[in-house]
Request: fold
Amino acid sequence: MKSHFLTRLNMTLLGLALLMFSSAGFPAGGNYSSSVDLEPIMDLLAQGKYQTAIDRLHDALDLDPDNPDVMSLLGYSYRKTQNYENAQTFYEWALRAEPDHRGANEYLGELYLETNQLDKAVEQLQILDNLCRTNCKEYSKLKQMIDSFQQSASSS
Reply:
């Protein structure tokens, strides 16, 4: 299992490196169009089938290695399996591909809360505030989670 992951991770890294060093005809810094259908993967996530989702998301990333949605969902799936190191890696990759990706910014903030890094979670909230001026679900959800985290910390 671990060997399978490392092989896939190495292939993903190779693909990302090749894209970084080739012009490949893609516009700089955007979310490129994707032929990846994420709906079946979202269904797996809703059912809590994170490992299956991870496998399918890696397949999707092979097809569309610059897709920040796929990277963000990989981060989410790894976070749900408490593999925080891989989760953070994929969130950071998603944000390199698309710095304004609200989902990746929210999920990274959630990861920071789950790993007791409140200050970093607040930084992610500030990024979301700058992106959507408190008027998006990603901001609202992370703000609520930070408030709950602070309340539970103060009552402990």
